[in-house]
Amino acid sequence: MTGRHAVDSTHDPEGHVGFGTVPLKHFDSAERDDGILVLGERVHMVASDLDGTLLRRDGTLSTRTVSAVTSAAHAGADVVLVTGRPPRWVDAVAAQIPCHPVVICSNGALMYDARERTVIGEYPISPETALQVVDLLRAELSDAVFAVEAGFTYGQEPTYPNQWPLPHGSLVAGVETLVTLSVVKLVVRHKEPGDHWEVLDRARRSVGELAEVTSSGPGAPIELAAPGVTKASALAFLASVAGVEAREVLAFGDMPNDLTMLAWAGTSVAPANAHPEVLAAVDYVTTDCDQDGVALFLEGVLGPR
Q: Which of 38, 159, 207, 264 is the most exposed place for a label (fewest CB within 10 A)?
């Protein structure tokens, strides 16, 4: 495979909390198969992004996808959800499928036990670094306004154009106050004209090594995490705890915030609706998310059961 790069599964950015409590497996039964055979390689972990990948565009899981994921889990593969979503937006999905109890949230900055509904680990951005990033982005992007995710707490500036009703317990305040929380994801919207991905690249260059900069789609905001914190770093850690090597991981994703995970995993797959950069990077392309592309691929490698 080409374009691969290693991720150190022991990488421990400043602020790492409590990942030693990560459960190893979802199923306790001794009657587990030996994993999925994908092109001669045993796969013991299936990692999937949610929006635009495992989920249809309307945010739902199809019956076919639930069935395929269930089959993969019973074949011996831990199914790990890896998303940019905060914990409050994953419970409904995790409840429908036999996934690993630990969900990787906020693009790798937070690990959430969906079974116990507790945060078991996080990589926050320091308040000092967050304020530096805010200053740089305000200088680069017109009318930049900020929001934050901090564990179960959401916060935003008063003028932030929120697309959904404010969650219960939200903090509305200036960003100087918001960054004093244990912020795992700093979010920015702006009124900069031009192509979304070009503006994202400008933001990334302006921030430099102070933060990881990504986005989950053209209509989504720019999202920032602590340096070195990505979907890949979190997945690599979870896999190492479970004794799973990168070559034994099958990963699905559709947007540039999935690229690190797709590059790290032994086998990578994207739905046909994925960003062009993702389509060029993966090993396989399956059908559109609305046509149950993840389920189709899993059915193909699992065979009749």
A: 159
> Residue 24: which of 80, 75, 74 has the closest Cα?
80
* 3-state SS string for 278-293: HHHHCCEEECCHHHCH
| 119 vs 3: which has the higher pLDDT | 119
Show the domains of the chain with their CATH numbers: 19-123+229-302 (3.40.50.1000), 127-225 (3.30.1240.10)
**pLDDT given at position 213:** 97
Say if CB 231 and CB 212 are below 8 A apart. Answer: no
Tokens of 247: 């070559």
Whether 231 contacts 223, CB under 8 Å: no
What are the tokens at 251? 């990963």
The strands making up 145-150's β-sheet, listed across from edge to edge, are 171-172, 153-156, 145-150, 185-189, 222-225, 212-214
Instruction: Give residue 69's pLDDT.
Output: 96
pTM of the model: 0.87
Alpha-carbon distances, residue 82 vs 94, 152, 170, 188, 275 (angstroms): 11, 17, 24, 21, 17
pLDDT above 60 (res 4) = no
Helix, strand, or coil (residue 3): coil
Distance CA 150, CA 106 (A): 10
Q: Where are the alpha helices (DSSP H) in the chain?
A: 63-74, 91-94, 127-140, 175-178, 196-207, 231-241, 259-264, 276-281, 293-302
